[in-house]
């Protein structure tokens, strides 16, 4: 039991600078955005009856359908260029294989996995559209 405590203390001693920097990074925004209403009563949020805190919706989706649609659109916007780059990479693998059977197999596998990923990406969009239209038709 004492050895575990000793190992934990050694870990803290070795990483004290990292822990301090992380704590400072987490605490400093809170301190820097704090406002003192006694020195500046006209500052926003220092009214006699401050309004309740509201959280704005950054996505703009009011229903689960809109949320899923927004998330899938984001994934597709990021995924399509990645797929294009992966296909280009597979082309380089084929060119650099130079007839070596093991390299050609590696290139074929990479292309197969890239195409499977593309099919999953596009298929998820198609399935989401199908479900959305079916639910809205009911």
The assigned structural class equals: mainly alpha
SSE sequence, one letter per element: HHHH
Beta fraction: under 5%
Which blocks of ≥5 consecutive residues have pLDDT under 50? none
- Helical percentage: over 70%
Our measurement of the CA-to-CA distance between the termini, rounded to an integer number of angstroms, reads 62 Å
- Radius of gyration, taken over Cα atoms and rounded to an integer in Å: 27 Å
How many E strands?
0
Q: What is the number of helical segments per DSSP (H or I, 4+ residues)? A: 4
User: How many individual domains?
Assistant: 2
Query: How would the global form be characterised?
Result: flat
On the 0 to 100 scale, the average pLDDT is 80
In terms of quaternary structure, the protein is single chain
- Please give the largest β-sheet: none
Describe the structure.
The protein has two domains: 1-54, no CATH class; 64-137. It is mainly α. The protein is flat, with a radius of gyration of 27 Å. The chain is built from four helices and no strands. Helices cover 73% and strands 0% of the residues. It starts with a helix and ends with a helix.
């Amino acid at each position: 039991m004492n050895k575990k405590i000793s190992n934990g203390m050694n870990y803290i001693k070795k990483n004290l600078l990292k822990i301090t920097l992380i704590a400072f990074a987490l605490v400093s925004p809170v301190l820097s955005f704090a406002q003192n209403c006694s020195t500046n009563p006209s500052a926003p949020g220092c009214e006699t009856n401050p309004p309740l805190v509201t959280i704005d919706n950054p996505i703009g989706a009011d229903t689960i359908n809109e949320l899923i649609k927004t998330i899938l659109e984001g994934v597709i916007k990021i995924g399509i260029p990645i797929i294009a780059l992966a296909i280009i990479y597979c082309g380089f693998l084929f060119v650099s294989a130079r007839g070596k059977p093991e390299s050609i197999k590696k290139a074929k596998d990479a292309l197969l996995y890239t195409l499977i990923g593309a099919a999953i990406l596009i298929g998820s969009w198609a399935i989401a559209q199908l479900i959305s239209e079916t639910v809205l038709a009911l």
